[in-house]
Amino acid sequence: MGGGMGGGMGGMGGMGLDNGMQAQQMQAQMSRQMQFMPMGQMQASAPQVPLGRAGEHVGDRVKPWTAGDHYGPVLQPFLIHKLGAKPLLNPLLQPPPDDLGREYLKWDMLHSPNTCQSSKDAGNVSWSSGRGEPATFPRVTSIVLYIERQLASIQINAANKDVGVTCGDVIDGIAHFMRRIVTKDEVDTFGAADKKMAVTAYRRHRSTAPGMPGGALPREMIRMDLLGPYTVFGGVQKSDGLIQRRCNSDFPCAFELLCIQMPMTQSEIRDLQARQRAEEERRRAREEAEVQRREEDIRRREAEVQRREAAQETRQRELTAEDAHSSSGRPGRSVSRSGSTAASSRTSSTTRTGITSVSRSSSRRTPAATVETISDDDDQ
User: Fold this and answer.
1) Could you report the per-residue pLDDT of 31-76, keeping only the tens digit for each?
2) Based on the structure, what is the number of domains in the chain?
3) Is the bond leading into 50 cis (omega within 30 degrees of zero)?
4) pLDDT per residue as tens digits for the range 130-172
5) Residue 377 belongs to a domain
6) 140 lies in a domain?
7) Is the pTM of this model over 0.70?
8) CB-based contacts of 121: which residues, under 8 Å, 6+ apart?
9) Rounded alpha-carbon distances, angstroms, from residue 67 to 76, 98, 153, 163, 363
C-alpha cells in the first residue's frame, strides 16, 4: 500500500514537475514574443474602451461633451422645461472668446457646411473633430435657434435620437435653413431699408465676385439674402431678452444664432480706401466744374447786360443829337422837316405794321414749345 501510495505520490510529483516546466517554458516563450512584437501590435492587443476625446475622463467621471450614445440620458425639451433645467451649450458652438484661446468654429454660411473649420485646424482642413459631440448638456432631442434680423426660427432636430442634438446637427440644420426660399409674406414684413439690403445682398451673392457662390444659388431669394452682409457664423448663445420676445416665455432649449459680417482683408481694405479716394476726387471735380459753369454763366449775363446798356446809351445819344439838330434849323426847313418827319413817321408806321403782320404770321407758322423742345434747349 505504501508502495502504491509512494508510486502515486511519485506520479503526482512527476506531474507537478512537468507542469512547472511547461509554465516556465510558456512564460519564456511569451517573453520572447513580446520582445520581438511591434509596439503598435502590443497597443492594439489591449482592450479598447470608448474614451471620447483625449482628457475626457477624470477618474470614474466623464466630461459632459463626450461623444457617443452611452453617456447619460437624452431628454425632450418639454421635460427640460418641466424640470426647470438650464441646458449648457457646448463651448465649441459658443462665440469666439476675446483672446481667441478657446477652440471655436469659423464658417461663412454662404457656402456648404463642409467648408466649416475649427480654429485649431489648418487652413485647408475641414472641421471633423467634435462633430459628434453633444450640443447641450444635458442632451436633448431638439433645440430652436432665433436670429435677431429674422422672424423665422431654426428647428434643429437630432439625427440620432439616442445621441441627441450634436454640434454637427446644428451646423447642418443652419445650412439647410439658409437655403430655404423666402415667401412674399415674409418679405412684406421688412421695411424699405431692409428690403434694399436684401436686394443688394441677392445680387452680390449671385455675382462673380471672389468668394461668392454665384450661380450655385437658386434664382429665387433665399433666407441667406435677408441677412445682407452678415453671413458669417458668429456662434450660438443664450439670449433671454430675444427668447422672451419671440417665445413669450423663458424656453430653456431656445438660443440665439449670431450672424456677423465677414472681416475685410488688408487687400480689401486697401481697395476700399482706393475706391473712396477716387470717388472723393470725382466728387470734388464735379463740384469745381459746377462752380466754373456758374461763374461763366454769371460773367455771360453781366456782359449781356453791359452790352444792352451800352446800346441803349448810344441810341439815347443819337436821339438827343437829332433833336438838337432839328431845333436849330430854319422854319421853312423846319416845316419841310416836319413834313418829311410826318412822312417818315407814316412810312415807319407802315413798315412797323408790315413787320408786325409778318411777325404774327410767322408766329402762327411756328409750333408751340413743348417739354421735349425745352429739354432739348436745356441740353444744348
Assistant:
1) 444 444 444 443 333 334 343 344 444 445 778 899 888 877 899 9
2) 2
3) no
4) 999 999 999 999 999 999 877 789 999 999 999 999 999 999 9
5) no
6) yes
7) no
8) 127, 129
9) 18, 27, 27, 8, 95
